[in-house]
Automatic annotation (TrEMBL):
InterPro entries, alphabetized: CheY-like_superfamily, NreC/VraR/RcsB-like_REC, Sig_transdc_resp-reg_C-effctor, Sig_transdc_resp-reg_receiver, Tscrpt_reg_LuxR_C, WalR-like
Coiled coil: none
Any one of the GO BP annotations: regulation of DNA-templated transcription
Keyword Repeat annotated: no
Domain called HTH luxR-type: residue spans: 174-239
Annotated Gene3D superfamilies: 3.40.50.2300
Protein name: DNA-binding response regulator
């Protein structure tokens, strides 16, 4: 059932849909706009249009966008380039919107590239509507890796196609950063990679949730990660967590 404007929460999560298939966007809009705390405020049919319309200056009159659902394969500019350009424009005063990449299993390398470009998560295009809605809310909150079970399965699948890298490669700084983590921080990072939320990690380790949040903040800082998803990618890439482990 659709939700009227008067029934919406005061500050709904503002969503942009970027997909070259109009019917796909229409379906996503119908699902998202049915929720009182979510609102689609922008649609784009390719990455170039998304980059243009999500420019902070262009959004001054119409308001910011909080979360972007970004398809990978699109004409003119694909989702990878668009994600990199959109997330690169963020500042402390005006953060860039968080990007959720829409994908299928046959696009593994593209997803990993998007995460490295600054995407905050990924979602299978055939995921149930409830999972999509949960992903938007979770990424906006910045609290947990989206859709823990499917995210872990997909991430483990991605890692199996990563090229082998020598200690002298670009992965070396990440390995040094992981080595710089304390034992407790590594423990928290492993649990993050297993899809555990802050609340769940606190229960696992018998500590306060505020303590977990402190550890997570330090982990992100040491790894130079924008958010939890990027930190988890580092955990897999450096071998701290193994597929199936």
């Amino acid at each position: 059932m659709s939700t009227t404007t008067s029934e919406r929460t005061a500050d709904p999560v503002r969503v942009a849909l970027v997909d070259d298939q109009q019917l796909v966007r229409a379906g996503f809009r119908m699902v998202i706009d049915s929720q009182p705390d979510l609102l689609v405020v922008l649609e784009a049919g390719d990455g170039e249009q998304a980059v243009r319309e999500l420019d902070p200056v262009a959004r001054t009159a119409t308001g910011p966008v909080d979360v972007v659902l970004m398809d990978v394969r699109m004409p003119r500019m694909d989702g990878l380039d668009a994600t990199a350009r959109i997330t690169a424009r963020g500042t402390d005063a005006q953060p860039a919107p968080r990007v959720i990449v829409l994908t299928t299993f046959d696009l593994d390398e593209y997803v990993l590239a998007a995460i490295r470009a600054g995407a905050s998560g990924f979602l299978l295009k055939d995921a149930p509507p409830e999972e999509m809605l949960a992903a938007i809310r979770t990424v906006h909150r910045g609290d947990a890796v989206i859709a823990p079970s499917s995210t872990r399965r997909l991430l483990e699948h991605l890692v199996t196609v990563l090229p082998d890298e020598s200690p002298d490669s670009a992965a070396a700084p990440a390995r040094r950063a992981v080595a710089d983590l304390t034992d407790r921080e590594r423990e928290v990072l492993v649990l993050m990679a297993h899809g555990r939320s802050n609340t769940e990690i606190a229960g696992d380790l018998y500590v306060a949730e505020a303590t977990v949040k402190t550890h997570v903040g330090r982990i992100l800082s040491k790894l130079g990660a924008r958010d939890r998803v990027q930190a988890v990618v580092v955990a897999y890439e450096t071998g701290l967590v193994r597929p199936g482990g």
